[in-house]
Amino acid sequence: AKIKEVDFVKSSSRVKECPKDGRPEFAMLGRSNVGKSSLINFLVRKKEVALTSKKPGKTQLINHFLVNESWYIVDLPGYGFANAPESAQMDWSSFTKGYFLNRETLVSVLLLIDASVPPKKIDLDCANWLGRNNIPITFVFTKCDKMKGGKKGNRPDENIREFQEVIRETYKQHPPWIMTSSVTGLGRDELLLHMSQLRNF
Ligand code: GTP
Ligand code: MG
């Protein structure tokens, strides 16, 4: 399940432009600052692989990265930018929803959720939308090392439990979920194994 090489392939502005070779892909999604870039670097263990997310308001792109010449990691524009103009957020939804609904080779969305803060409405809305539309999803909770101190809102276990309770209304079966930390390495092997199992179905 190891990642040996990652190559940037292309940026697409719509599903029609995405690679057509039929290889399976995983799309990474999450709020700005959730730890997307860190997670990628942590999976790949290479600092040079920069999956840069786009700034709000700029052209929004679907970025394909080919892993081990056999499957894709797709970097999508983040959502919930604090300073994004309303119009940029609107664009995000129609653009990204089109991708989710029409991309046949999508194996699973990896929805990144910051476990160090209590559940945010925008993440719950996103999880519920994907669930209602039967898009396969894996919850990847990030920043799970931020446990200590016992400060309110800084308890990943509780934050995760709370998140799962809310989405239970949408999901009959709870989707797979993995706790990660790019600081301690928690969840790395589990996530790589999970992705390799899904690819072989
Ligand atoms: P944008 O590209 O700006 O949307 O952010 P991003 O989602 O790529 O997040 P990024 O990986 O840049 O991480 C944001 C901040 O969170 C950085 O300061 C990281 O060091 C920190 N961070 C990311 N992952 C972890 C983690 O697992 N644990 C801790 N403690 N901090 C983390
Ligand atoms: Mg980033």
TrEMBL record:
Domain EngB-type G: 22-201
Keywords: GTP-binding, Magnesium, Metal-binding, Nucleotide-binding
Coiled coil: none
Cofactor(s) needed by this chain: Mg(2+)
Family of the protein in this entry: Belongs to the TRAFAC class TrmE-Era-EngA-EngB-Septin-like GTPase superfamily. EngB GTPase family.
Full protein name: EngB-type G domain-containing protein
Organism expressing this protein natively: Penstemon davidsonii
Whole-protein residues included: 94 to 294 of 299
